[in-house]
Amino acid sequence: MHSYVLRANALLTFAVTILALMCAMATLSDNFNSPSPASQVQVLNIYRFQKKRDGNEEVSLTLNISANLQSLFTWNTKQVFVFLAAEYETPKNALNQISLWDGIIPSKEDAKFWIQTTNKYNFVDQGSNLQNKDFNLTLHWHVMPKTGKMFADKISMTGFRFPETYR
Ligand SMILES: *[C@@H]1O[C@H](CO)[C@@H](O)[C@H](O)[C@H]1NC(C)=O
Ligand SMILES: *[C@@H]1O[C@H](CO)[C@@H](O)[C@H](O)[C@H]1NC(C)=O
């Protein structure tokens, strides 16, 4: 009886050691994977651009978002969270970041996509800074691994501009 417990214990220790080793290898092999994600975003239409009663400007737009994030997926990837943010500078803040769309990519097969969508979240500036202002659209991603550390990166796309006049 005694030796049976000992044996089971030894087996368990062995299993845990192997598991730890596999986790370490998974994390390590992830570090060797240098992903090359790509994204393209077009603003198809800014169909509303107004100053609200409280003085803050609001923008409604239609976006064409395409991306290929397949290289982010390894066998250690659980899922990838993505969001697209409008980023611009104002006198008050060097970086204003407003999330326009987000999604969870569950698998490599889903990591190559394009969608046409209006902004999922309200785009309201803290003030009225937007007329004729340049902005970036940045695709951010957070890779959630099965084991090891989460990591994040982004692609910034430049050359967008808000209209000169309200519509
Ligand atoms: C949207 O993007 C996709 C992929 O880049 C492209 O094939 C399609 O023509 C675009 N649609 C419009 C309306 O520009
Ligand atoms: C927009 O992107 C460019 C290029 O990555 C960067 O130099 C600039 O600081 C960005 N602007 C904002 C407001 O984040």
Automatic annotation (TrEMBL):
The keyword Signal applies. It is found in: Endoplasmic reticulum membrane. Transmembrane segments: none annotated. It is a single-pass type II membrane protein. GO terms for biological process: signal peptide processing. One of its GO terms (cellular component) is signal peptidase complex. It comes from the Eukaryota. Residues 1-26 form the signal peptide. Keywords: Endoplasmic reticulum, Membrane, Signal, Signal-anchor, Transmembrane, Transmembrane helix. Its main location: endoplasmic reticulum. Essential component of the signal peptidase complex (SPC) which catalyzes the cleavage of N-terminal signal sequences from nascent proteins as they are translocated into the lumen of the endoplasmic reticulum. Essential for the SPC catalytic activity, possibly by stabilizing and positioning the active center of the complex close to the lumenal surface. PANTHER family: MICROSOMAL SIGNAL PEPTIDASE 23 KD SUBUNIT SPC22/23 (PTHR12804), SIGNAL PEPTIDASE COMPLEX SUBUNIT 3 (PTHR12804:SF0). Belongs to the SPCS3 family. This is Signal peptidase complex subunit 3.
